[in-house]
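Predict the holo structure. Ligand: zinc ion.
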Amino acid sequence: MRAWTPPEIPTPTVTGPAVRVHDTATGGLVASDPTDGARLYVCGITPYDATHLGHAATYIGFDLLLRAWRNAGHDVHYVQNVTDVDDPLLERAEKVSVDWAELAERETELYRTDMEALRVVPPQQLIGAVESIPLVIDLVQRLVDAGATYELDGDLYFSVTADPAFGEESGYDTATMLRLFGERGGDPDREGKRDPLDCIVWRAERPGEPAWDSPFGRGRPGWHIECAAIALEYLGEHFDVQGGGSDLVFPHHEMCAGHVQVATGRPFARAYLHAGMVGYDGEKMSKSRGNLVFVNALRNSDIDPMAIRLALLRHHYRSDWEWTDAELFTAVDDLATWRKAVALGAGAPAGPVAEEVLAALADDLDAPRAVAAVDRWVAATLGTDGLADTSDADAAGTLLAVLDAALGISL
Ligand code: ZN
């Protein structure tokens, strides 16, 4: 499917250093310095509702990785999916009496406009689950051929015991896996399964649900096999980073890794990156709790999308934190102050700030550290920390370029 229009991004005056990121599987910082083009897969939305700030924080987090790689001189190949057929979407469509495909297209379009407004660089391929069904069928067939599946009342299951490396992505013990599997769409208690953690790769047709023909009967893809098939097709084997929110550590990313390990004999991704959860009113922002703050609602209130982005960037992508309206209003004020400083043209020396911004982002995408460096430059330029410093005649140009290239903030 169509992605969205990419922002025009300036080139910073200095090259960024090699990028290091936190890998969930190893639990440590790993050098993410691809030699042959950087390949990134980020799990996309299930389009049954508008983009909330938790989504925005996740996609902006991975946007920082893409920008850090580019600034270090790498070509980036970025793929994202849209789960445009799945249980939550079908349930919502039925509840509001709208055709599921129509609901998916409407919410996907809203997502595109939100991402564009937030200056998130689009993936080269934005791939829907429906359009990837032939890829899914091919990958399921490989799992069948490998003897890694079994049928239960028409549904086709993946045997987690077929993958000797199962569990290495999340590092969770069995009790934790069982709990999270039950909480996040799995069916650990279904009778007849060989292992409670086995997951569906092809779900047999249910009355009233969309279904497609396949060698395994009419049905539709499981969620995990969808991402596995799309990433394998468009990025190839053993790509650099799979990303998503931390609620995807298990079962989603573990299952993707399992499917691909069995089908190809190689690990799925080199590193697994996970963004923290954003809370609101004391709880994780989620549909079921009804405490969502929508990006388009803020935009409709005439909030500058750059202020939304700046408010999100003041938190590290891996941290769990709570959104407050006060932080958004502070970001609106900060943006006005930053604009006042760059409007002067000359300012405090900007070269070291540009280097600090790029270094911070190369160090596990430390946006708060990068933003703090910009704050210090603004204070020095405006003289709010003493005497105004206008010793660098081209300061504003240098700063504007690095701000946009590395942080995605266009002033
Ligand atoms: Zn995914």
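Residues 43, 81, 227, 252 surround zinc ion (CB under 6 Å). The chain has 13 helices and 14 strands.
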